Each structure stands twice: as structure tokens, then as C-alpha cells.
Amino acid sequence: MDSNLSSAFPDTSAQNQDKVNLISTTADESVNSVTAVDTSLFNAIVDDAVHEPTEEDKAEAALLDSLMEYRMDFTNPVPEEEYLFSVDGHGFFAKGDIHGIKAKQKSGKTSAEAVLASSILSGKCFRVECLKKKLRALWLDTEQKKSDTYKIYNMVFELAHLDKTNMHDRFEMFSLRRQSMDEKMNSLRVLIADRKPDIVFIDGIVDLVKNFNEVEDSQAVIEVMMQISAEYDCAIVCVLHTNKDDTDHNMRGHLGTMLSQRAGNVFECTKRNEVITVSCSDSRHGNVPDWSIKYDAEGHLVDADVAREEAKRQQKQENAQRSKEKTLKLLNERTEKVLEILRTNGGCMKKSGLVSAVMKSIEKKETTVKNLIRELVGSKTVVTMGDTVSINGEQNLFS
What we know:
Layout: H1 3-8, H2 13-51, H3 55-67, E1 83-87, E2 90-94, E3 98-103, H4 109-122, E4 124-125, E5 128-130, E6 137-141, H5 146-159, E7 171-175, H6 181-195, E8 199-203, H7 215-231, E9 235-241, H8 253-262, E10 265-272, E11 275-283, E12 291-295, E13 301-303, H9 305-344, E14 348-350, H10 351-362, H11 366-378, E15 382-385, E16 388-391
Parallel strand pairs: 3-9, 3-10, 6-7, 6-8, 8-9
Antiparallel strand pairs: 1-2, 1-5, 4-5, 10-11, 11-12, 12-13, 14-16, 15-16
Helix pairs in contact: 4-5, 7-8, 9-10, 10-11
């Protein structure tokens, strides 16, 4: 190239190459940077997807959160139970719990309920005292026809010495006999949710279950009662018959078993000589004294604690007499065995032989038989001479 041209246009190829290299390097770095960012974002998305809580995880977390409500916590103390009634200062039927009243048929359970309901309106009925002012109660009768339920409603006000003026803000009574089982249960739910009662009497709970001898049916209805009582902080008193056998005081079926296991208090009504005695058969927090009622000659329900004490005294005497008669009968039977053995052996035997023979006959131990022979000697039924025993006449049986 001409020197003049070279001077006017210097050679820049080297510089240009450096720029090209710089641009290339910068581009590579940018690409690498973008690639790194994209990879990081991708990894983050994948990581979030892998660790995204499943529906099961969410449900478990929600359950754990809800369980905190039931955890015991000293910063959130649980108040003492609020009893609604008392007898002689002993409280019973706490709010937020289920309870039971049991009895044989026609043994006074409805009459006992009437006394409780009357104390709600008057403050106290006989020895039963209502512990909460302005207590609100529901009574749901599932068994009796409407006319019978109305008679009980009337009796409650008579016991409270009140005029026949409805007090529906304090006490309501419903006859649900005509409803189906499901309708009765729905009525129970709706009334409790609307009225917000302190106590509910269900007379009788057997009409709310398909089969009181089925475990699942019985457990289901008792769980519903427990849930409702806790949710609305009310006492639910369930009335149920006991088994038909006079000696069996357990409530009927699996329903009765479930109720007795879950109930805070269970009261039993028994009837003797027309006196209805209400006894606390089961209690989670201490027993309650018995109280008694009866119907007078005019058909009015009256206090019967004096009559109850007399009935108890009479019962004690009868029990003692039965025990005495049973003992006497057994003694005479054994006496006849001894005499029979002696007669078979000519009326006289060695004492050791007689003891062995009697032991075998009545299947009792040697000590028992020797005591028996000693008693017979004392009554002069038999006599001893040396080591022999003989009959002293057969007229000396015990009486």
C-alpha cells in the first residue's frame, strides 16, 4: 500500500479482532449466566413440586391444630363442673354431660323427673334443690300419648305451687310419640340448637335407636348425646328401663351398657309399699343421698322420706327373718341327715364314724360337722357317752 494511504488509513485489524474476542467472551458469559438462572429456577420449581403438601398432609396438619383445643393447659384452666341440682348439699347432673334415670316399668321414674322439673320452676321441691336461677329445661316424651304427657305437665306446676300459666321461657314439654325415630332425633337437635336449654330430659331414649341390643346403634346414639351436650353445654338426662328380672338392676341392652359407662350420674327409682325411692347407683364424682316420694290418698305426689325410713326398717326385719328361716331350714335338714345315719346304724355310733359318714352325706368339712354334732348335743337331740353318739329322741328338731 502507498505510504501516504497507509498513513491516512492505519491498520486496525488487530484492534478489531480484540473487540470481536471481547464481544464473544461477553456473550458467552451472558449465556452462561442466563443458563445458571434458568437452572436455579427450574430446580426451585421442581423442589416445590416435590415438597408440595398432599391433601392427606393438609388434613393431618388441620387435625393437629384442632387437637390443641383439647390439650390440657395451665394457662387455660378448665372450670369446675356446674351442677344443676343438689340433695342435702350433694350436687348432681352437671352441664355438658349425659346422665341416666333407670327403673323397672311403673316404678316412678317419670314422677322423679316431675320433682326435678318442679324444682326448676320453684327453686326447691321436697329435698331436691335447683342450683341455677332461671334455669331453662326441655322435656321430650317419646313414649306416652299426648294426654298422658299433659297430665305430667300439669303435675309439674302443681308441685311447684304455680298457677296454670305457661312458662315456656323456662320449661317446655313436648310429646313426640307420633314422630318416627329419625324425626324424633331431628326434633331433639333442632330444639336444643334453638332453645339453648341448660338441661334436657329424654323420656325415653330407647325410641331414638333402631335396636337397643346392637352395639353400633347404641354407641352411635350415645355419642350423639355426648356431642350435643358438649356443644351446647347442657345436661342431657336419658331415661331407660332396667332388665325385667327383679334381681337385675342394669339398664337394658347395649344401649344401657353404653349409657351407664358414659353417664356422669345414674339414678335408680325403686318402688316398695307405694314408696318411690330415688337412689344414686353410679356417680363419677361422689354419691348423692337417697330421696323418696309417694302418692297420697288424693293422688298427689308428696315427700316420703319418713315412710322410706320405715320401709327400710321393715325391709331389714324381713331380711333378718328370711335369713333366720334359711339357717333354721338348713340346720333341720342336716339334723335329719345325722339322725338318719344314726338310725341306719342302730341309733348309736362311734363319734369318729358318725363324723365321717355325715361329712360324706352333706359334703362339708370335718370342722363343720363336729360343730353340727356339738349343736345337736346342746339341743339334746343326741347324747354322747364316752366316744359314742346316740339318739336322744326324735322330737327335738329346731324351731
